[in-house]
Amino acid sequence: MTAYTATVVVRLKHGVLDPEAETTQRALERLGFELDDLRSADRFEIDLDAPDAGTAEEEAAEMAERLLANPTIHDYDVTVAERATPEA
Amino acid sequence: MTAYTATVVVRLKHGVLDPEAETTQRALERLGFELDDLRSADRFEIDLDAPDAGTAEEEAAEMAERLLANPTIHDYDVTVAERATPEA
């Protein structure tokens, strides 16, 4: 088994209203920043052990499907990287 | 001016308790997943125009300092990419 970190980014589907992001954008504009758009997303970094990167990615995608994302309103993507484990 | 998307990831500093992440990890374990750790972070994708990538990155870092992150408890990192703008 190899140690991996899977990063799952969960974002609202295009067209789903995001009042939190709108509020954040307006607050930045009130501070004097100029921006065209702001989108917010949740990011989960999951440390897990798996026989290979493909299996780690499948496992993380299943976590997204079953708990982290709501398929009605969310899209998600998964990236996987090997994780350095501290030696004893 | 060039169109950029700056991505700001805001995460809790090491050692700051994250009850939401702990709850999410336990819920995944109750579903039968095995994981070593789970960390959550906020991700902001900011569309802005700037003369060059360095300026876009500075601008986004200032947004993080002033609003998106709380320096007492958060670390953040900024990445910048050119953004394709729809042609008229």
Automatic annotation (TrEMBL), chains A, B:
Task: State whether it acts alone or in a complex, and with which partners, per the record.
Answer: Part of the FGAM synthase complex composed of 1 PurL, 1 PurQ and 2 PurS subunits.
Question: In which pathway does this enzyme or protein participate?
Answer: Purine metabolism; IMP biosynthesis via de novo pathway; 5-amino-1-(5-phospho-D-ribosyl)imidazole from N(2)-formyl-N(1)-(5-phospho-D-ribosyl)glycinamide: step 1/2
Q: Which GO terms describe its molecular function?
A: ATP binding; phosphoribosylformylglycinamidine synthase activity
Q: Name one GO cellular component term.
A: cytoplasm
The residues forming the signal peptide are: none
Q: Which UniProt keywords apply?
A: ATP-binding, Cytoplasm, Ligase, Nucleotide-binding, Purine biosynthesis
Instruction: Name the InterPro entries on file.
Output: PurS, PurS-like_sf
Q: Which gene underlies this protein?
A: purS
Query: What catalytic activity does the UniProt entry give for this protein?
Result: N(2)-formyl-N(1)-(5-phospho-beta-D-ribosyl)glycinamide + L-glutamine + ATP + H2O = 2-formamido-N(1)-(5-O-phospho-beta-D-ribosyl)acetamidine + L-glutamate + ADP + phosphate + H(+)
Listed GO biological process terms = 'de novo' IMP biosynthetic process
Write down the Gene3D superfamilies for this protein, in alphabetical order. Answer: Phosphoribosylformylglycinamidine synthase subunit PurS
Annotated function: Part of the phosphoribosylformylglycinamidine synthase complex involved in the purines biosynthetic pathway. Catalyzes the ATP-dependent conversion of formylglycinamide ribonucleotide (FGAR) and glutamine to yield formylglycinamidine ribonucleotide (FGAM) and glutamate. The FGAM synthase complex is composed of three subunits. PurQ produces an ammonia molecule by converting glutamine to glutamate. PurL transfers the ammonia molecule to FGAR to form FGAM in an ATP-dependent manner.
Q: What is its EC number?
A: 6.3.5.3
Q: Which organism is it from?
A: Salinirubrum litoreum
Top-level taxonomic group: Archaea
Report the principal subcellular site. Answer: cytoplasm
This chain's protein is named Phosphoribosylformylglycinamidine synthase subunit PurS
* Entry's localization field: Cytoplasm
**Family per UniProt?**
Belongs to the PurS family.
